[in-house]
Write a structure and sequence with these properties.
The chain has 526 residues and is mainly alpha-helical. Helix content is 39%, strand content 7%. It is built from 20 helices and nine strands. The strands form four sheets. A three-stranded antiparallel sheet has the order 1-3-4. A two-stranded antiparallel ribbon has the order 2-9.
Length: 526
């Protein structure tokens, strides 16, 4: 998505406003010069692009220390990865010491709520409601563009895009906060409480099904594909939304539309002959973006001056003179080490990358996503280089996208749904499709272990892509009493889970002048 597209959005949000919803911190864009703004297709296109821009800004947003411009806690990866402790800080966290143990014991509000950066960013859903507000404005005003002004696309497409963005945003925040306010009109000043997440997801599903009918399989301009809504982005979001509630038969239907639709493909490299070397593997290009595997991405295009920095996992993990001149990373892949004597767990850096990809002789991921540091001051012998596209290794500017959905994710999601249905043959086939792509042999374990193995394969294939914590919640493994089975997860009993411990606490700002807002029971205590 090019910077020029965002210009309209920036102009819109620059206008002053007359009213706002303090509870959601929605600033209605009610000073648009109506007489001229909704007069051409470019206005509607720009307003929709503004919603995408707000979504990108929100997902890549990160709290910052006052004395350091680096964003150490990028929102997308904090919610989806580090919350589950599969990454940890290498040095002392600049915002708070011992933060990884705070995450492990799941005391986010009582301990970390005192840090302004977390309270204002990670606990605060206001930025997501700005995305939703932009979509509501588009949906309420799209009809005002005259019919004869549409040249490239029709009105229905832009409306479908706005419905998709709004639905995706609601799906995303349900996975973060559970029950959330449901706002479907702009400029609302209602004192809203939290709507049950199942009702919100029912709304999401209905919106996506309505939107996909007017979305294209692909755009004629390749620059829009994967970055703006298509049938595939709607199908993938539907599959995830339905799988979240274990509506597996319907989730499989929508996942299959992605898998068999002919638009997206797994990127495959030819396995080198024994003793041969891997030259320019295509697999690594997935995270640069714009590949046939990507379904929905947040774009950072160096060609137009849009660099991933603070909100990028590249910024967190690259070091050692290979892709960055830093002598150590901010984050390292991590795991929970179980003490066999007492069963206690402690978060520990992964020093041996074979813990990530056990088959170091065959697995293409081991062979292509890990690099050796040229120089380093810490005892880490590898660089997690999945996002290893550096534009300026000194200034730490990177050209790697946030990949939200891709083909491998959807295939493994379908495998998980099949396994829950005890359709082990189909589940095994999908699992082995992913294993074969990275040059591994078929998995031959017992059916009873297949569900767990699919989870583990997702953790390997999608490491650092914002899925791991949600996978723990969706599969139920987050509360499994056997920590030896999956040790890397926060402390959480089933009672904790039922009281909302899997969610994030809500910022105190949401309670301003709103008697209908509530903190979930777990976060009232912790």
């Amino acid at each position: 998505m090019k910077r020029g597209i965002y210009y309209v959005m920036l102009c819109l949000v620059g206008f002053s406003v007359l009213s706002c919803n303090k509870q959601l911190e929605i600033n209605p864009i009610d000073q648009i010069p109506d007489a001229t703004f909704w007069s051409a297709e470019r206005d509607l296109d720009g307003a929709v692009a503004g919603a995408y821009a707000l979504l990108r800004k929100t997902l890549s947003e990160s709290p910052k220390n006052n004395n350091d411009d680096n964003g150490y806690h990028p929102r997308f990866y904090m919610y989806g990865d580090r919350r589950a402790s599969n990454f940890m800080a290498v040095g002392q966290d600049p915002i708070r010491a011992n933060i990884d143990n705070d995450i492990k014991v799941n005391r986010l509000r009582s301990v970390l709520g005192g840090t302004r950066q977390w309270e204002d960013i990670l606990f605060n859903w206001a930025a997501f409601y700005q995305v939703i507000e932009q979509c509501n404005i588009v949906l309420e005003n799209a009809h005002r563009v005259p019919d004869n002004q549409f040249i490239r696309y029709n009105r229905d497409l832009y409306v479908a895009e706005a419905r998709f963005i709004r639905a995706f945003t609601y799906f995303y925040i349900v996975r973060v906060w559970g029950n959330v306010p449901l706002v479907t009109k702009s400029k609302t000043t209602d004192k809203l409480g939290r709507t049950d997440m199942n009702a919100v997801l029912d709304f999401v599903d209905a919106e996506l099904k309505a939107a996909e009918a007017n979305l294209p399989l692909q755009y004629p301009e390749t620059g829009r594909n994967a970055f703006r809504a298509t049938k595939g982005t709607a199908y993938a979001t539907l599959a995830h939304s339905l799988a979240w509630r274990h509506k597996d038969a319907e989730a499989i239907t929508w996942a299959t539309k992605v898998i068999d639709g002919g638009v997206y493909k797994l990127i495959k490299d030819t396995k080198p002959a024994p003793g041969g070397s891997i030259v320019n593997p295509l697999y690594r290009t997935i995270w640069k973006g714009r590949t046939v595997e990507g379904i929905f991405e947040i774009d950072f295009d160096a060609a137009t001056g849009e660099y991933g920095r603070n909100g990028s996992l590249a910024n967190m993990t690259l070091f050692g003179g290979v892709y960055s001149t830093r002598s150590q990373p901010y984050w390292s892949p991590a795991y929970m080490k179980v003490d066999p004597a007492n069963g206690n767990r402690a978060i520990t850096r992964i020093s041996d990358p074979k813990m990530i990809y056990p088959d170091s002789t065959k697995d293409e991921r081991f062979l292509t996503l890990l690099a050796s540091p040229v120089s380093a001051t810490v005892g880490q012998t590898y660089v997690f280089a999945k996002y290893g596209y550096a534009v300026d290794p000194v200034a730490n500017l990177f050209d790697a996208n946030i990949v939200i959905f891709r083909m491998a994710d959807i295939i493994l999601l379908r495998a998980e749904c099949y396994a829950r249905q005890q359709n082990y043959t189909a589940a095994r086939a999908d699992l082995n499709t992913i294993r074969q792509r990275v040059w591994l042999d078929n998995w031959t374990g017992a059916d009873a272990d297949l569900y767990l193995e699919i989870f583990r394969e997702r953790s390997r294939e999608l490491l650092g892509e914002g899925h791991y914590f949600y996978d723990l919640v969706r599969t139920g493994f987050i509360t499994d009493p056997d920590y030896n089975k999956i040790p890397t997860r926060p402390d959480m009993t089933q009672t904790d889970f039922d009281e909302g411990a899997w969610t994030w606490p809500v910022s105190q700002r949401a309670f301003t002048d709103n008697p209908n807002m509530e903190q979930l029971r777990y976060w009232q205590r912790y």
